[in-house]
Amino acid sequence: MQAIVGDRLHVHRNTVGQPDKSGDIIEVRGDSGEPPYVVRFDDGHTGLVFPGPDAVVESGHAENIGEV
To answer: Which residues face 47 on adjacent strands?
Structure first.
């Protein structure tokens, strides 16, 4: 998994009734875009994340340049 600042991290929950978590990657601490990432989640919480197999990175590039 690789990311850059501005990408979004989506963590899919495996528990029924628990919503997925999403947030903006604000810092990449691994080499060459690898984890861990500092993520500011949509609920306002910021934390250091070591994403597992239930997480995906979505490129923030299109959003950053105004494309949809």
So the answer is: 39
